[in-house]
Amino acid sequence: MSLMLKMLFNAIGPKTFNKFAEKCQNPNETQENLLKYIISQNRKTKYGKEHGFAKICTFADFQSEVPISTYEDLSPYIERALNGEPEQLTKQSPVFFATTSGTTGKPKYIPVTPNGKSLKSQLLRAWFAKLFMDHPGIFNDKVLSVVSPEVESYAPSGIPCGAESGHGYRSMPKASTSSYSCPYEVYAIKDYETKYYVLLRIAASHSITFIYSVNPSTVLLLAQRLGQYSEDIIRDVRDGTISKKYPVSQQLEKLLKHNLRPNPQRAHFLEKAASKDVGALLPKHVWPNLAAIGCWKGGSVGMYVSKFDQYYPEGTPVRDCGYYASEHRGSVPISDDDSSGVLAIPTNVYEFFPVSEDRKPEPTDLLRPHQLKKGEQYYIYVTTAAGLYRYDMNDIIEVTDFYQKTPMLRFVQKGKGFVSFTGEKLSEAQVIAAIQKALTSYSGNYEFIAAVGEMGDVAPRYAFLTEFETSLKDDEAKSLAHCIEKELSLLNIEYEGKRKSKRLEPLVLRIVLHGEFDRYRKQAVEGGKNDGQFKILKLTKDQNFAKSFRTGKEFCG
Fold first, then answer.
1. Extended beta strands in 61-187, E state
2. pLDDT for 438
3. 178 and which of 1, 182, 185, 258 could share a cystine (Cβ 3.0–4.6 Å)?
């Protein structure tokens, strides 16, 4: 089926990308036409009636009538849609709700409609088309991908809620999914070690020519696990089995029967591959014909990509997946050079506000794509066909160039108060809530300083820097670290998931020496900081900030 997919992209790939490129020649016209379509489709919705959609004829009308929104602003409409009430944000009823972590413990539910899916699919096809034009070998053999389970829960109305990556995979044409090394049911395995073992056991029996996973930490995890599982994988490929160390249900084993045929010849190949690296399987030896990897390359996750050559064929092209979130797919990278991508103007309506302004924007202050300047950083606001209107992403992007007349951008970081290494999107509010809950019995005995995102021994982690008035016993400190870990997992479902999959290491409680907070404050004020407005950071990934404090013991959560 990879051959069929290759023939398909040979036939329609250039046309698909050229259609996207044509839209980029006149971004104003493209954006205005899209806005008119979204407004006309949704005039009679509850949101449309309450915000004057019937009066909107121009972009200026849109900015005057429709306020800038956050999830909290839209949540009443989303709640009613979850309960099955029609025409809340969109004329089309949602067919799915993508779940993502909010700033509190309650997840956000992002509506997915047929129109929204269609537009987003067009964008993904454009990305694949350009990638195939540059690297036609990606579909020579199988594709290895990792997606999250589609359904995590159901809304009161019965609509499924879960990971959009799983939903997108389940929605792909059969010609596409049959090119993947594993069926969807493998991604739905709940035990993480079992899921990765089965995924890699099946993938090792194939030649893989393309790997796709938006988060590069997952790409690295695949390589590391492949080495750990080497002996079991080789034996299982030879015998056509799944090791009893990683039990699967009889139903799944029966479903996977055609993926588990004995293959002594492939097992012999794997044995020779393992002998090249002290008995451990490495992707560079197992999949020497890998043509490309698709994943994020920028933001706080770029450090993973720099490690790829240790595991994968040296010089394997890596194409950024683009600026991408549950709320929208925002760009189409067109080269392997960096993490920049062309703004997704045919799919979503975009507005921006300069980071340099350092103030809250008024609704009419937001800029349109043609008003952006190369080298400048902006907050980004999105309007989608699925019912987000002038939605504040709390993301910072930088304009790196222009393609045709459309801006190219890269993701810089979450806006104020967020840190994210593997998609956990930890917020300052969550950190504060966790520390307050965990330190209830230590009230008055501590000077909480900050949670600092940093690289641990093999994966990122969060170090909680805390100064105590009186020293804690070691067992008290260990208990406190475990308690903070527990509270963070309760507050942030994505943090919990990344911890279970070992893409995040356990947090550490790092004891700051007595008097350091006072010294830091004094130093800051003497350096010109306003004493009355002095605020200590609660969450950061700034390593220089962390180095500002002398510390003693640390305790693992």
1. 96-100, 108-112, 142-145, 153-154, 160-162
2. 87
3. 1
